[in-house]
Amino acid sequence: MEEKRAAELREKLASTVKKRLFEHCSGVCSEAVRMAELFGADQDKAYVAGLLHDCAKWMDKPKQVELCREYGIELDEITLKCPAVIHAPLGAEVARREYGIDDEEILDAIRTHTVAGKGLSLLAKIVYVADMTEPLRDFDGVEKLRKLSKKDIDDVYREALRQTLIFNIEKGSVVHPNTLDAWNELCGK
Q: Under a CB-based contact definition with an 8 Å cutoff, are residues 85 and 115 in contact?
């Protein structure tokens, strides 16, 4: 990626989000680029998708919902019951409108980084995993994910989905159907 463009994206994001969120996005960016190099994905796309994956997370939930409606992003009943994931589809549109990103593979990786889904591209799997393995993350199971992320994208993606499902079930939270679809797709292979 052209250094000037990368610097512009970083600068704009840093001026928009709080320091801690910027540090998280930078960590996801680094992890995504590392995995892209290892697993043969486009490193420039991994850079952009990793950096901008949470570009809409700084907004409060009512503002996220309002912007989704304004931008024509459909939020079904289950997504509205999982408000922590709304920033992902909104983030794809913010990346398009405010950061000038028009690559559909990048936008899809941003859109699916919270709930996954069927038929994810290699890039989308990488961003999904990088969001869970970046250096600031600290939870039971993260070291297992980090270790797997150095070996096989499909193995680490499967484990990341498994951990996500267990986390949500143990909390008594709604499990987004896209996450279940991703899991069922993997189990069917």
A: yes
pLDDT tens, residue by residue, 11-34: 999 999 999 999 999 999 999 999
- Please give the Cα distance from 121 to 88 (Å, whole number): 16
Distance between CA atoms of residues 129 and 159, nearest Å: 9
CA angle, corner 106, sides to 140 and 83, nearest 5? 50
What is the rounded CA–CA span in Å between residue 92 and residue 100?
11
Segments making up each domain of the chain, as ranges: 3-187
pTM of the model: 0.96
3-class SS of residue 103: coil
Q: Is-contact 58 18, C-beta < 8 A? A: yes
CA distance 76 to 66: 14
CATH for 3-187? Answer: 1.10.3210.10
